[in-house]
Design a protein that fits this description.
By secondary structure, this protein is α/β, with parallel strands linked by helices. The chain has one domain: Vaccinia Virus protein VP39 (Rossmann fold). The chain is 44% helix and 17% strand. It is built from 11 helices and 7 strands. Helix 7 packs across helix 11. Bound molecules: S-adenosylmethionine (SAM). The site of S-adenosylmethionine has 22 residues, from helix 3, helix 5 and strand 2.
Length: 304
């Protein structure tokens, strides 16, 4: 496909793909129950390492200026979270995945204690004494007493929790935080409610949810309602969408290798497993979704 005819917007990309992929077929399967999320991460473990940074982080890189991409910015999110922990403080990461954020913090803050809770925790390459990771669904934390943590944070993980369970999760986080403790989230939101978008954009959002095993990506107002329902006060809500564009652009090049060539894409979609191909679609439209501000990347800083 030559440069000029390459689709440049999310809607154009959906039209382009509809010529050779049955997108509706991708949207019929259950994709977000805990078993599916575990299967998704098992299946994608090595691909995530390849696409992200090879080390095990599974989140977007927040560029300092929104223009330059650098792996040095990989720890932006945990480094912001740790600013809210006092000396000797206790920190919980929701959904640490391959554990790189916690490993980074545990090594650089030996005076603090860290816990991670994930449905599918991976073996850590190092085990500092101040770091524990547990296999558990974090929407219910019965073993953790009230007022335990100074900071609870989650990077690109609460998007896996549906609207109903978000209220349950936020109530649990509120309970286990100390009075005055902070809750920080980096996650995807839509700018407006799903029903307000065109057919193409709704398809793009649904394919993204299926591709990433996410629950429905909620809009900013819905997120705000979850936080205030639990009793949190807002410290700051920052859109970092423009600052993840360099990372998304880097990833788009990777997905372009298949998707921008119809014949190659057709062969890939006929031969490779659904989990791979649906993820390919989601990855290919991510840069344009962010550039068009359909899907935003927010930093939420809340306080008990
Ligand atoms: C995209 S990864 C992000 C990993 C990590 N936060 C990072 O920055 O590299 C999302 C993680 O959330 C975990 N997760 C999703 N829903 C969960 C739940 N209800 N309870 C525990 N972990 C969950 C997944 O198993 C996965 O490891």
């Amino acid at each position: 496909m030559s440069g000029d005819s390459k689709p440049q917007t999310v809607a154009d990309k959906i039209h382009y793909m509809e010529k050779f992929i049955d997108l509706d077929k991708f949207l019929t399967e259950n994709h977000n129950d805990p078993e599916h999320i575990i299967a998704y991460f098992k299946e994608n473990h090595s691909r995530y390492r390849h696409i992200y940074n090879g080390k095990g982080n599974m989140h977007f890189i927040v560029s300092k200026d929104g223009e330059t991409f650098s792996y040095d910015d990989m720890f932006y999110q945990p480094d912001v979270a740790i600013n809210y922990a006092p000396p000797g403080g206790k920190v919980l990461e929701l959904g640490p995945g391959q554990g790189e954020n916690l490993l980074h913090l545990a090594k650089s803050h030996p005076d603090k204690e860290f816990l991670g809770i994930d449905l599918f925790p991976r073996e850590l390459k190092e085990k500092p004494a101040n770091l524990t990771i547990q296999k558990q669904d974090y929407t219910s934390l019965p073993d953790i007493p009230d007022n335990t943590f100074d900071v609870v944070y989650g990077v690109e993980t609460v998007v896996y929790v549906n609207s109903e369970k978000k209220n349950k999760l936020m109530a649990e986080v509120y309970r286990v935080l100390k009075p005055g403790g902070h809750f920080l989230i980096w996650d995807y939101v839509t700018k407006y409610p799903f029903e307000t978008y065109s057919r193409e954009i709704q398809t793009a959002l649904s394919v993204t949810e299926h591709g990433g095993a996410f629950a429905q990506i909620e809009d900013e107002e819905a997120w705000k309602a979850h936080f205030s329902h639990a009793g949190f006060k807002t410290v700051a809500i920052n859109s970092l969408t423009d600052r993840i564009l360099p990372d998304l652009k880097r990833m788009q090049k990777h997905f372009d290798m298949v998707m921008a060539h119809p014949l190659r894409a057709k062969i890939v979609f006929r031969t490779l497993p659904r989990a791979y191909t649906v993820n390919l679609i989601a990855g290919w439209i991510a840069y344009d979704s962010a550039r068009e501000h359909l899907g935003n990347y927010n930093e939420w800083i809340m306080q008990k």
